[in-house]
Amino acid sequence: MKRRTRLLKQTAIESLTLAIEVFNRPSPTARIQGVSLSLQHSFEMLFKAVIWEERAEIQPKAGGNSYSLRECLGILRGMGKLSENEAVVAATIAAHRDAVQHQGAAITEERLYLDAASGLRLFDDVLARCFGDRLADYPEFASRMLPVSANPPREMFLLTESDVQHIRDLLKRPKHRHAEALAFLRTLVVSEQAASNPVVVPNPPTEKQLQRVARKLQEAEDWTTVLPGLARLSLEEDEGMTYSLRIVKSKDAIPVRVVKPGDDGVEDAASILKISELDYWCFQFTELVSRAGVTWYEGEALVFLLELKEDEDCFKVFKLGKQWHGRYSGRALSLAREAKAAGRVEEAKAALSQHRRMKREEKKAIEAAEKS
Questions:
Q1: What is the phi/psi pair of residue 147, to 5°?
Q2: Same domain, 53 and 91
Q3: For residue 271, is pLDDT > 50?
Q4: pTM for the complete prediction?
Q5: CA angle (26 as vertex; 21, 27 as ends), nearest 5
Q6: Lesser CB count within 10 Å: N end or C end of the chain?
Q7: Cβ 50 vs Cβ 90: under 8 Å
Q8: Domains: count for the chain
Q9: How many whole angstroms separate alpha carbon 94 and alpha carbon 198?
């Protein structure tokens, strides 16, 4: 198993190396495509290495293709291996790659730099968190290979505002460069999808949707009302870190409302998302206890002691077919493992036993009262 993990990690490192080399090369030929495809592939393989290390599988049990980057992203979120801010970075990189490869989207130099720089930081963080490695431990990155830009973006809001203004200018007469404007707008819309909810699988925006968003951007004085997800993002730099740039969500920004087909206002939405929640709520109870390394009864006791079913980040009930099923997240598994490591299993068993004894006594008291 360790050898397979090493091979997946090495492939990820090689793709990341290629992405930064292509970014820094002087030739513009296929530069955006080369960076986006290699960067996306590096994260897909890194995430698969993490999943393989944890589960010894990187494809659905029913067979078929191995997990896509989007599926890996949902699984890692469910395992508690990625924060929401980190998921936004990975989802944005995936969205840009898809838009460039399949719809011919255009990406500005500043936003391409942002993908590369924030991607390096995320890759380094995940590598350290999940494997205890750093990029600097690998010969390819020992010399601190970084994306180089003459004018790196310093503020996310201003970057998006600049992109929006560029699109507005392209749409004005006499320029009226409509196709070029929509190519840049497509990148903003898929970035909006990723920022709004990084764990969902997005429907690519249609030409009509892009045209509606373009009209709204032309009519609205404040672009944040059209792209509220992007308005919530900001940049942070950690001094002293080799890979310092990270993207974070601002809690003070205007809220985002995700609409589904049939909802009011869906025709005006910048994007429509379809949710694959089972990638996040990825464990049935039997899988939870197996991965936590406890017995069925010990698992029930830990769920009771830790109140996992009352924690909305740990437990959710889904209707699958005609039946309802409870599912647990990676956070629930992490909490159960931590409780076991802290020696709380006996405490949990005692608490569950006492709770059940009290329930039996209450039931007997009620039955006796009814008889009398």
A1: -70, 135
A2: yes
A3: no
A4: 0.70
A5: 100
A6: C
A7: no
A8: 2
A9: 10
